[in-house]
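Purpose: get a first structural picture of the assembly so the mutagenesis plan has something to point at.
Setup: two entries, given in the order below. No constraints added.
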Amino acid sequence: MTASVTTGFDHLALFYRGEEDYVAGVGRFIADGMASRAPITVAVPGPHLERLRSRLPTEVVREVEWSDMAVAGRNPGRIIHQVLLAAADRRPGRQAYIVGEPIWPSRSDLEYPACAAHEALINEAFTGRNARILCPYDTVGLSAMAVADARRTHPTLVGDGRTWQSPQYDPAAAKRFNQPLPEPPPEAATMSFGEIDELATLRIFVACRAAAAGIAPRRVDEIIVAVNELATNTLEHTGDGGTVTVWTETGVLVVQVRDTGHITDPLAGRTVPARLDERGRGLFLVNMICDLVRLHTTAAGTTLRLHLAL
Amino acid sequence: MFENDDGCLDDTAHLVHGGIEAQEKIICFTQAVMPVAVAAALESVDVATGPALARGQLRIATAGDTFLRHGVFDPDAALRTWRDGIEAARQEGYRGLRVIADMMWAAQSVVSAGRLAWYEGQLSRLCAGGFLSAVCMYDRRMFTAAELSEISMTHLASAPPGNHTPLIIPLRIVRTTDPVGIRLTGEADLATRRALHAVLDGLPEDLPYGTPVTVDLTGLSFADGATAAALVRLAQALPTGSRFVGASASLAAVLRLLGAGVVPGLGADGTVLEGVA
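Result (structure tokens, whole complex):
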């Protein structure tokens, strides 16, 4: 690998097999960053964080800003804002080196499409920015599908000490993960809304269901802020009403808002709006509040599904 | 809101009666029906209209005779009238000024929808002084559903036809003098957004110049993202030393999310948001 690139944006997938390969691959990237005196951020899940810190030289460990991706990136919808852009803005004017590992084998089937969509959207969010982002992929533990998706969502691939352009790279890959969601279970509770004076009732409906599911009062308050933002968007931007459906699945409370709108900006809610009164503020808050957000949006309507740990 | 002339009279009588009981001065603007008909209707439901009219506590006028005299609605002139009216009622010793206005004229294209919305917002600003209360009566037959929805956003409370007091006021906004500032009580969402934004955006102008302000959010049981954004905007417009107190944990979290990096001095615990010049 070469450290000659000091400006521009690149998004690399590191394919690794086992611990040695992981530490060596990430270590090389960090060394490149240090050679070009770049600000370096490493956001990987906890066990990988510990492994890197114990295996890399002390002077390297000291140079890096560390972050637990399993915490900061629990909801992949907030990684771009909270982890990547925050890291890129640490030292404006300098190309940032960022290791971001949003996908690991224990990510659930529920989480995976949102994680893969996030990987695809990094390319759009960072166009024109000055950063190199390396995403490690465990080719042993992850499915063949996840590895194939990584080839589509990353313009550059790294493995076995080599770096090459991905022939499968697709700048519009995010569309692949905009998939219909399974229907809510029959026992789910539903409330339709269509008038602005119904928002207060809707909040009570969601608060009661969330409390009944065992969510702590303080968290219930945050959840109703999130649901209220989505219902407000429905009333403001669709001209129609919508439907809110609430149920529980193993370990999570699910709140779904369905309406006739179409979210055409793929980055909506993934970055903090430059102006506070801009559209996108509601979705941004939703991403910051929820543990996982799944989205399916078409010209025929939008389904947003919020997941909250019980 | 009402759906027939009886409904309008009924609601009006109820509001006038409440105002007399509360020792407020009442100005009643009618349009759909003549002032004498209003007076008669009030008498018929045992509101002591005659004495109240005689001692000047109650005034009944038509919009056409007053702020629509020239056939065009002048929002600035109307707002001046309310300011003068507040002052006069205060000096006459009343506990408040209650204005009940049949808004039928608003359907007659004497004012643009944008100007009307602006006017209603400014009226909310005046009401935040705590002395004036204004009830705008909209005939549901004269406005489209979309218009009524827009209209209700400029008000702090909307009541469907035939829904007498106790009217649930979802959000109360009152300017305070000790400490100088504003107090929000209730729930702030899309239903009251325009009214709240008009009051908050006008606050730096409505309070003594340069005085640090206390924004008391203790009673604000719900605030949506737009409200939080308006509070952050307000923090940027208020004099140094201004304080935001009593934000709930969830509002504090939303303020931090929207204000971090935008408002220097955002309180670390989120409950105090220092205003910056």
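The CA atoms of residues 222 and 289 of chain A lie 7 Å apart.
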